[in-house]
Amino acid sequence: MAKGTLYNKVWDAHVVDKLPTGQTQLFIGLHLIHEVTSPQAFDMVAEKGLKVAYPHRTFATVDHIVPTQSQARPFADAEAEAMMKAIEKNVANFGVPFFDFKSGNQGVVHIVGPEQGLTQPGMTVACGDSHTSTHGAFGSLAFGIGTTQVRDVLATQCLALDPMKVRRVEVNGKLRPGVYAKDVILYIIQKLGVEGGIGYAYEFAGTTFDGMTMEERMTVCNMAIEGGARIGYVNPDQTTFDYLKGRPYAPAGDKWEKALQYWKSVASDKDARYDDQVVFKAGDIEPIVTWGINPAQSVGVTQSLPSLSGFTGNALQSAELAFKHMDLKPGAPMAGTPINVAFIGSCTNGRLSDLREAAKVAKGKHVAASVRAFVVPGSMKVKAAAEKEGLHEVFKAAGFDWREAGCSMCLAMNPDKLKGPEISASSSNRNFIGRQGSKTGRTLLMSPAMVAAAAIAGKVTDVREVLA
Amino acid sequence: MTAQDLKILQITGTGVPVTGNDIDTDRIIPARYLKEITFSNMGKYPFYDERFGEGGVSKGHPFDDPKYKGASVLLVNQNFGCGSSREHAPQSLMRWGVKAIVGESFAEIFAGNCTMLGIPVMTVTPADAARLQALAKDKPSTKLTMDVEKTRILVEGGETIKAQMPEPKRQALIAGTWDSTGLLLANAAKTAAVAQKLPYVSGF
Description:
The structure holds 2 protein chains of 2 kinds. Chain A is α/β, with parallel strands linked by helices. Chain A has helices at 6-14, 39-47, 78-94, 109-116, 147-156, 181-192, 207-210, 214-222, 238-244, 255-265, 313-326, 346-349, 352-362, 380-388, 391-397, 448-457, 463-467; strands spanning 15-18, 24-27, 30-33, 58-61, 98-99, 124-127, 141-144, 158-161, 165-172, 200-205, 231-233, 276-281, 288-290, 298-300, 341-344, 372-375, 400-402, 423-426, 442-445. Chain B is globular and about 60 Å long. The chains are: A alpha/beta, B alpha/beta.
């Protein structure tokens, strides 16, 4: 059993009771909600005649169904409009703070929480969205929950949970130029598998993560869930504290020093014990591209797709299905695969630094005639900051559409969708069949810089050649 | 309803096999159906794009195969339910008629969501998963009993297969306390005490 890790310390501090079932009742410090997985939960709370127990510990925004060409109301899609009305009614009735369009702070829930300073070290964070693991970048225990669990958090600010094991995922060394946080997490998932993290929280440690910015750490923790780990976290350090200082909901004045004390105290002890440990070298990682229908089906951009001879049983069935759906050939080179669509955005890679890296690649070039390309900032604040730097002009001049904030074509619940068998280069997190809005659509996951390079070349391209 | 009414000790029904590893929640329920603000229609949508082609033509998915009509035990393989936290996935399976799921392994959030709905999720060895799927294919009328109390599967007229399930989830089902709001609410005073001790809740 793990001992002395951040996971153990934060878990222990939030235990309310051991339930008769043997499950643990855990207090949830920060609850984030969005329009898709909350309306049913509010209805359940109302049906039970309950109210929201701690309304000031739940924060709402809208992201999944929001159109990105115009946020003007009413939305053209009647279902999306009904969903908006439902969350507006619920936050008003139950007294929940709401980052809506009018506030200027709307955006993808996992981008809004950190940029507001809501997400802090040593918290438990829950949200009805699997990419809640993102918030672990701050040294919090953050995890996705289902709607019935959203009901429990609303009604009691608690969840009934089972403890997890802790795996230390260590990466050491400096990343080579053209290799980004996205490549690091895709590499880890490729090595440990999409099911490798089931039952585990991943502690990302080592000099590679020490040297990362908060935005890079968020990209890594965001995709822990794609490796099966419901929680991924990085121990808080000076980088974390510097990011938080001055944010709207961060402690200020004489409270700052007290907060620092608590935040430092939750980091894993030097002699902490882990249930498992793996070590990788940053120097072994090159730009990664997925070729299949789950995020572990990936290769380095200079490599070829695997041959079927390496698979047996159900894994062979999955690989065959992946090649069939993707219409790609075993053994074919990854680089040079033609693309039709380029999408830069999402809770994985929709932050300012992501847009900056993509803009560096796009600057002075033009999107290939065969490609439609668009950039969706992760929040209204990210959009404003990018525009202040002139990034929107770089993208527009290069032939990218510049959109409003939302989840967009990461999961295609808004009008941004692939058509037919289109193939996209995407900075998002999932390449599942049908994920980007077309049953026959295909997704290649990669870093935002790699997406920009693919958009310009019209095919998968090693971004290092463009940057050289 | 009291905990007594909610006890889930055994579930008996015929099996429906859906084979393949890493069947994700987007495949179980495409995101376009998440735009409905209630779960009431979800029973129409499980595996929709794998079941129906253009114009709603059936592709012969097991969920539409007459031989599995009325089946309530879903038989799957590895890492079933990976991906999104959308409860729409287990809701759609439950409302279609699934009462229990047996497989090699399950994604964590999916398995947790199932427990919250009172759906037992049990794991068996890859060999046993394959055997149960083959049995359902060859003799679809065979009744399978998921014995939650003893974490095993009884095959009608045949063997007993050892299964596994996390102990707290098993306890919640057999005690009828899987609908956890009541248990959590009962500890409201303790909850307030824990909140008060957390430096960030008390405002540092």
